[in-house]
Amino acid sequence: MEAKTERSELTQTAIVDMALEMAALEGLESLSIGEIAKRLNLSKSGVFSRIGSREALQKAVLDEFDRRFQQDILLPALREPRGLPRLDAIMRAWLARACQPGHRGSCLYAAGAFEFDDREGPLRDMLLSGVRRWRQVLRRSVLQAVECQHLRADLDPDQLVFDLDAIFTAVVRETRFLRDPQAPERGWSAYQRLMQGLRCP
């Protein structure tokens, strides 16, 4: 019984992994139970029994993306001291992640924002929730840097979060669409210039 449960968990992991790769490279709307089954050489009923509906599959993909996103960016940064060192670590990892090849470097938050910008529904709501959670992480990190007197107390945290997100979005486009190999360095340079004007004297 235990071996059967383990096989089932492994299959579910394979399903979510394949779906995440599809979503990253082809968009969340590309996901279908039938296509996942075909690519993994499974029956549609087998995929459905482990995942459920297409909407449940899309939710599982976003949950897994969010988990990996946090693992790649936030968790390593939390090892750094509070304040600017931690914010620097977040930005460095965030920009570096955008430059990973294939689906590993794709950002469902950035791509999904364009894919679902003028649509309503539960999938858009899930994407929006993920983006807002991440912006709260950035805002909290900015406020900690202010509390540590690394950044000026009179800065506008929401404006800074907007600017950081804008830098990342530009790096994603420059790296993945324009295929500029200098995009990561340009993004980091833009971040450093931005922070120079905000540091405490």
TrEMBL record:
DNA-binding region: 32-51
Keywords, ordered alphabetically: DNA-binding, Transcription, Transcription regulation
Keyword Transcription: yes
Residue ranges annotated for the HTH tetR-type domain, each copy included: 9-69
Top-rank taxon, per record: Bacteria
Protein name: TetR/AcrR family transcriptional regulator
Organism for this UniProt entry: Roseateles subflavus
